[in-house]
Each structure stands twice: as structure tokens, then as C-alpha cells.
Amino acid sequence: MLLVAFFSYVFVDGFEKIPVMYTFEACNDLKLISTKTPLHGKTELDLSEEEGDIMSRERPRRATLPPAEENIKKLENVINEGNYYGAQQMYKSISARYVSAQRHSEALDILHSGACFQLKNGQVTCGSELAVIYVETLVKAKVPYGDDVLDRIRKIYKTFPQIPLPQDLGEDDDMQQLNEALGAAKIHVDCCLSFLRAAIKWSAEFGAHRNGSPELHVMLAEYVYSESPELDMTRVSYHFVRGNNLKKFASALVNFMGKCYPGEDDLAIARAILMYLAMGNLRDANFLMDELKKHDLPQSDLIQLVNYLLPTLQRDALPLFNMLRTNYRSSTDREPAFKELLDDIAELFYGVQRKNPLQGMFGDIFKMMG
């Protein structure tokens, strides 16, 4: 038999720290055979009872937390005093206590309030951090996707500030002002992206569409389009095609056509249509094109290809599809991703297997935008 002993400390009556020696018998497992308190002469029975009392006092203390509303009001007062950083640390630590006590609903209330209140006060980094923790808590609590939670996420999203860029620039001071505004806008977009990406991932895992909530994809696309200082229409389109608001997507494309560089407009239109088709969504591809045709579209080979491609995919016409790819290859070569999109379309609509399985990287590339 092997005896193992070690010292530890316990608190008696809430204050007095006394040393305790624990002795274990080590066989196949550890069996506690005695406890001694050499400096205080307490018996094993006395110590056991005291430890039991201490543990019984600790349990309710750990679970005894005030209603969340009390902490929410206190934390809002801290923010109103201008102590944003201090409030941030308190939001994180207090909400963590509610999570530890399995009071997830109240933890979510605190985090939601904190995210909105920090954002309303212009504290985008702090607010977005709490927003991300809010989503992480949804995951921990296994909260299912539903309208109530979606409304709360939408409320946080709408609280993200928008920064109008200065106009009529001329002086050096104006350029400095522009650079500051561009830097702030980039931070805002990155913060909002982090929050909405996390929310989309949660929604996909807990009950929404396998690609994530269409409503959340629309929110992300809208914010990137309206607020990004360096507009990435590929990212915007990626999320709009996974959304459920074709009118907004069409409006964004029309607006983009009015301000983009020459040659970018037809690329944006073709990209949007091909993305829908690569997902097998011929209906929305046709609807989007019909909406865009209400406006003046650029005259180009890419637009011709799209106009021919849509009716072709409505029937069994693989030879015609291949002919279109061949005849318009010089146009589709303008963007490398178009080849992958067309390969996806051929596989979905006509069962054409890829010659090289490694070619199917389009999905993985675009997942980086999710």
C-alpha cells in the first residue's frame, strides 16, 4: 500500500486560514483515509463538518446573483460617466458569472444591452466585442434560431454607426480628415463583419438554412456595400445571393453601375447571375436579370452571354451550353472565378463531372468571405 499526503488550506468561519494535511491510500485509485490539522488540533470529524459548512455556504453564494436588470442599469451609469473601458470589463465579467450559474437568458440580456449601449455611444470596438460574445453565448446555451433572436441581432446591427465621408476636399486638413474617416469606416466594417459572420455561423448550426440565415446575409451585404471604404462587390454579391431580398440586391447593382469604373459594371452583373446559377438557383437569377433590365445595362459580350445562358439552362441543351462557353471564353477569362462558376453550373444542370477534382476550389475560396 502506498500512502500519499499533501497540505492545503481551508478557511474557517469565513476568515481564519488553517493548514490541512490530506492522506490518501493509493491502490487502483485514490482513497481519502484521513485529514489532520496539526496546528489547530481539530479532529477529523470536526474538520469534515467545518469543510461541509464552508462548502454549503459557498454554493448559494455562487448562485445568488441579482436580477440582470439591476446590473444593466448600473453598467449603463458607468458608461454615462464616460468610463467605457471599465464598463466593458464589467460587462464581460458579470455576464460570465450568469453563464457559470446557468442563467444564460440573463447573461444574454446583459450582453445585448451592453453591445447596443456601447455602440450608441460610438464605442464600436467595445460594442462589437460584446456583440460577438452575445453570439458565442447563444451557441453555449444552444439557443435555437428564431424570430425573437433574429430581432435582437438586427437591433445590434442597426446600432452600428455610419460615417459619412467628407465632401469637397481640397486643403491638407481636409485630406487628413478624409484619411481619419476612411480608417474609422474600415474599423466599423471589420467589427460589424466579425459580429454578423459569427451570427450567420450560429444560425446555420441552430436551425436556419444550411448556408445561414438569409436575413443575416442581407444585413452583412448591405453594411459592406454602404460602409466599406474599399468596396468589394464580390463579397457583397456572395452574401446577397445567400440572402432573400432580390430588390435590395438589384438596387445595389444599379447604384454600383452609376459610380464604378468602366468595365466593372458588366463584371458585377455577370458575377451575380453566375453565383445564383452555381447554387442551382435559376429562378432568382432570372428575377434579378429582369429587375436589372428595367435600367440601362452596359452593352458587352458578358451581358450577351448571361442573356443567352438563362434560357439555355431551362432545357436540356448541353451542346449549346458548351458552345456559349467556347464563344465567350475571352470575356469570361476577365475574371478567373467565372471558370469555376461555369464548371459548377455544368455539374448542377447537366451532370458534367470535373476532369480534375482539384478544380472544385470555388466554394472554398468564397467560404473565406463568409
UniProtKB/TrEMBL annotation:
One BP annotation, GO: protein insertion into ER membrane
GO cellular component: cytosol
Signal peptide (from-to): none
Family, as annotated: Belongs to the GET4 family.
Protein's name according to its UniProt entry: Golgi to ER traffic protein 4 homolog
Organism whose genome encodes this protein: Salix brachista
